[in-house]
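Worked example 4.2. Below are the chains of a multi-component assembly; read each line carefully before continuing.
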Amino acid sequence: MSVADITVILAAMGRWEPNAQGRLEQAAMELFSERGYEQTTVVEIAERAGLTERTFFRHYSDKREVLFGGSTHFRENFVGTLAAAPASLTALEAVTAAVEAAGAALDEFRGREFARTRQRVIVANPELRERELIKLADVTAGMAEALRARGVEEPEASMTAELGMAAFRVAFERWLAAAEERELPDLITEALASVAATVRPGG
Amino acid sequence: MSVADITVILAAMGRWEPNAQGRLEQAAMELFSERGYEQTTVVEIAERAGLTERTFFRHYSDKREVLFGGSTHFRENFVGTLAAAPASLTALEAVTAAVEAAGAALDEFRGREFARTRQRVIVANPELRERELIKLADVTAGMAEALRARGVEEPEASMTAELGMAAFRVAFERWLAAAEERELPDLITEALASVAATVRPGG
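Applying the procedure described above to all two chains together yields the following structure tokens:
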């Protein structure tokens, strides 16, 4: 019996779902875009992906999780990188390293087209927009805490964390714009540099 | 017939409600604190204020509006001040003026104790917390737009607006802390100064 044979048998048994998560994600994005987030059911997502509802629930607790399933990684990219930054870096240098790392990870993770579709879905739904804002606020609070753990005092810890997240958000929005071709990490670097310019006396 | 007589008659007719809005606000805050936002009804708020439900709806469209009724003024303090700032100011100076003006207005408007109670109610309820985050995000977008209207380019316009709102939020949170005695505008100034410190090379 070949591997292909085993695959066919397992697929028939509903136990072998190569890249099930990716297929569910793709199907969900298509449906959210076509008919709207609220009008899409888990059953329809599973059907479009050629999988069962049960398989959906092995990967996600509900349809919202398809959009926010990466939140833990997202947070870890910021907060983990910041916590691991060499002690010799200043607060702003450490935050810059963390935000640039998070931007690079996001760029690689699903790429710009996925992020564009996801953003369109989120912006169209107040509940999702709010969920996204809370996610970003929580990451900001995590960065401020990591900075305080490095010995940075308030309000500098909070302000530097806010500054980093602001650079991320501003760069992220530009990255998603139709005409934008530059990569996310470059846009983050540019956003952070503009703060230095604006803060310089007479800037 | 004296003014006092007229007041009594109008009150009996349910048409004269001295400081109805303030009384409804006070009653709502008490009830939200005592039994929670979700467990409080409009009827109960009106009753506690010694007013009718109809009077409530002359002032607010629903109980959430008691907490967010000042949003238009809040936004105007930021965006209006920024739009009216002298053209000679840099982007950061104009944003600083706007955020300090908004802080001073908030300090005077209801004062710290009111803000503390309101914040406790908001933090305890995800829907309200999300509404608050959206309010702040909208004001930030308004400030960025006002800066672009002044000829500030992107990403500097967005980053300077984000910076101003971050200073406001960080200062606001500290202002509400139990042990904090300094005034909001002073805390805003300190937060903005800490950014200049962190951005300075070697800072």
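Take a moment to check your reading of the output against the notes. Chain A has a mean pLDDT of 89. Chain A touches chain B at residues 90-92, 126, 129-131, 133-134, 137, 154-156, 158-160, 162-163, 166-167, 169-171, 173-174, 187, 190-191, 194-199, 202-203 (CB under 8 Å).
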